[in-house]
């Protein structure tokens, strides 16, 4: 009978210990992020419902809305020129190589380029 009580006690302690270390993300999970862009709840669990993404959410709490247009609605010709300021400089190895039209054509060749991501991706404003 004593062995049975000891076994039950050990089993309960093991369950408690495993439960205490089972959190997946956030402060409880050593700062880990949830996979696939899932939200990390206030209790350290990953999911995609309001329970996880609502009040107390620790990371990846909301999915940004996708821009309404293509990449050309995000990066204008003027912004492109600002990003690659020296592309017209004859001393630049890339002189004449980079053009706005070629950039837009390449971006349209890859579905979602420049229009998808999560909050960890910087947004040009």
TrEMBL record:
Residue ranges of every copy of the Chitin-binding type-1 domain listed in the record: 22-63
SMART domains: ChtBD1
Broadest EC class assigned to this enzyme: hydrolase
Signal peptide, first to last residue: 1-22
InterPro entries on file: Chitin-bd_1, Chitin-binding_1_CS, Endochitinase-like_sf, Glyco_hydro_19_cat, Lysozyme-like_dom_sf
Highest taxon, organism lineage: Eukaryota
Known function: Defense against chitin-containing fungal pathogens.
Protein name, per record: chitinase
Origin species: Crotalaria pallida (Smooth rattlebox)
Organism lineage string: Eukaryota, Viridiplantae, Streptophyta, Embryophyta, Tracheophyta
């Amino acid at each position: 009978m004593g062995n049975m009580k000891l076994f039950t006690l050990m089993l309960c302690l093991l369950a408690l210990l495993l439960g205490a270390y089972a959190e997946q993300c956030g402060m409880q999970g050593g700062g880990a992020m949830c996979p696939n862009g899932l939200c990390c709840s206030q209790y350290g669990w990953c999911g995609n419902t309001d329970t996880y993404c609502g009040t107390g959410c620790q990371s990846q709490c909301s999915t940004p809305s996708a821009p309404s247009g293509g990449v050309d609605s995000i990066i204008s010709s003027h912004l492109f020129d600002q990003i690659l300021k020296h592309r017209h400089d004859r001393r630049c190895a890339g002189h004449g190589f980079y053009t706005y039209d070629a950039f837009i054509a390449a971006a349209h060749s890859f579905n979602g380029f420049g229009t998808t991501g999560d909050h960890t991706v910087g947004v040009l404003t």
